[in-house]
Structure formats: C-alpha cells, structure tokens
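Pasting as-is:
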Amino acid sequence: MSRQRSFPETVIHYKPMWFVVMFTALGLMVLALGAANLWFGWQYHISKPIRGAVLQTKRLRCRNCSGGYNVRIEYEYRTALGAVWTGADYMSHSYGDRFRPGDSIDVYFVRKFPSHSQLSNEMELFFPGILLLLGLVFTFVSLVGVYCIGSDLRREYLKAKHPHVQRTSR
C-alpha cells in the first residue's frame, strides 16, 4: 500500500507545474532585462555632456544602411574625478564623416558606471518596451497557469484525502 502524498509533494511531482515555473522565471528575467535596459537609457538621457576627443574613425560596410556604410568612432573622455575612459559608438555616415582624429565631441556617460558611455543621449524606448511587454505577458500567463494547476491539484488532493465527501460545483 502506497502512502498518501502531502500537497507540497504532489505539487513537486506534478510535471506541468515545472513547465509553468520555468515559464514564470523566463518572464521575470525578460522583465528584469527590459527594466535594466530602460534604466540605462534613462541614465544616458538625463546625463550632462562632457567633452571628449575622437581617437579614430573607421568606415564599416553595412548592407542595410543608407549610403552603404556606418562610421565607428572611438573616443576618450575624462570624468570629473580625473579618470580617463575610452569608448566606441556607431554613427550614420552622414554624421560620422564629420569627425576626424583629435576633434572634440560630446560624450554622455552614466555617473554610477563611468565606463558606460555613448555619443547620443536619445532614449531608446522600442527595445525596452518590447522586453517589458513580453515579460509582463509571460509572467501573467504563467501565473494564471500556476493558479489553475494549483487549484486543480488541490481539488485532486482533497478528493483523494476525503473520498467520502461529495463536493458540488457552484
């Protein structure tokens, strides 16, 4: 005679529950990634520009770009504490061709992470928005799944524990 499993043991051994738990974890990770991406975008957006110097420019072929190429600009900048950092950013050919090595350029960086910099303070909303939306959908659907599976397991557990009690649906 096998012993009756407790409710937590029943949940642990119920295989579809693990799928839902993994789906929930995936949703929460995508949600966190979108929130972090949005936070960094906001930090760039509110930062004040500092002057940097162009170290090097390179033309890179690009099939999907207007003009057939992009420009990679390598630059260096000095923070208020005196640390010198380098970075690289990509620009369209029409904007990137304006710069030569030694030219002065505006650099935006995150104050808490001075090694993170870019040449524009425009805030990207599309990619973080898509990540946040996908994370919310994954998390909501998986939590509905957790509720449905949990209530189904609870009903089966109670039915097995008290077989003589008749339950009526409302």
